[in-house]
Amino acid sequence: MNKKIGIIFTFIGIGIILLSGYSLSEGPPEKAKLNANLKWKFMTEGPVHSSPAVVDSVVYFGSDDNYLYALDAETGKEKWKFETKDSVQSSLVVVDGVVYFGSDDNYFYAVDAETGQEKWKYQTWNNIRSLPAVVDGVVYFGSEDHYLYAVDVNTGQLKWKFKARGAVDSSPAIIGEVIYFGSEDSYFYALRLVPFK
């Protein structure tokens, strides 16, 4: 007797379909098998756009529920969470025990990586979604207010800022004495840092 065969359609990207067959007498693959490699999952109250940073067995990430989270990387258990006033879509960096990140509340934050306590915050005039870069005691980040900022990591005080003609969501890269970044004004910039110091 011929076995009846079922087909699972899986869409990957656009215009690509993977087909896999299974016997209807056996049924489709069990969800437990599909999730066999899941170590843990943690639910927030909003979508997660932020890319995580993992340092010393702690994973840090932001959510559209306005929080920055710190979870145990092994268990997924929450260690602490830090509330901003809007979504946290910015990715983040952790340097010398401090988490640096931006929020759609227009503020850039420095938060203690161990306790989740705010060290300082700096106000811009629009969303901050740029991944920051920290070099020689200065944190560099862009804002959708068209500026690239350089802020002292210890005091949170502005050292300098540079105005583009569009939002700066690009993540800056620093090589030697030059900082590189792009803007929605269609330009890519290279700035000499020496005159700013």
Topology:
Elements: E1 5-12, E2 16-23, H1 31-34, E3 53-55, E4 58-62, E5 67-72, E6 78-83, E7 93-95, E8 98-102, E9 107-112, E10 118-123, E11 133-135, E12 138-142, E13 147-152, E14 158-163, E15 173-175, E16 178-182, E17 188-192
Antiparallel strand pairs: 1-2, 3-4, 4-5, 5-6, 7-8, 8-9, 9-10, 11-12, 12-13, 13-14, 15-16, 16-17
List keywords for this structure.
4-stranded antiparallel beta sheet, 1 helix, 2 domains, mainly beta, 197 residues, 45% strand, disordered N terminus, Methylamine Dehydrogenase, Chain H
| Terminus-to-terminus distance | 82 Å
Query: Which percent band covers the strand fraction?
Result: over 45%
Element string (H = helix, E = strand): EEHEEEEEEEEEEEEEEE
Q: Strand order, biggest sheet? A: 3-4-5-6
Could you estimate the helical fraction of the residues in percent? under 10%
The CATH superfamily title of the largest domain? YVTN repeat-like/Quinoprotein amine dehydrogenase
Q: Give unreliable regions as ranges.
A: 3-26
Number of domain units: 2
Name the overall outline.
globular
Tell me, rounded to a whole number, the average pLDDT. Answer: 88
Commentary on this structure:
The chain is mainly β and 197 residues long. The chain has 2 domains: 38 residues, no CATH class; 158 residues, YVTN repeat-like/Quinoprotein amine dehydrogenase (Methylamine Dehydrogenase, Chain H, 7 Propeller). 2% of the residues lie in helices and 45% in strands. It is built from 1 helix and 17 strands. Strands 3-4-5-6 form a 4-stranded antiparallel β-sheet, with no helix packed on it. A 4-stranded antiparallel β-sheet has the order 7-8-9-10, with no helix packed on it. A 4-stranded antiparallel β-sheet has the order 11-12-13-14, with no helix packed on it. A hairpin with a 5-residue loop joins strand 13 and strand 14. The N terminus is likely disordered.
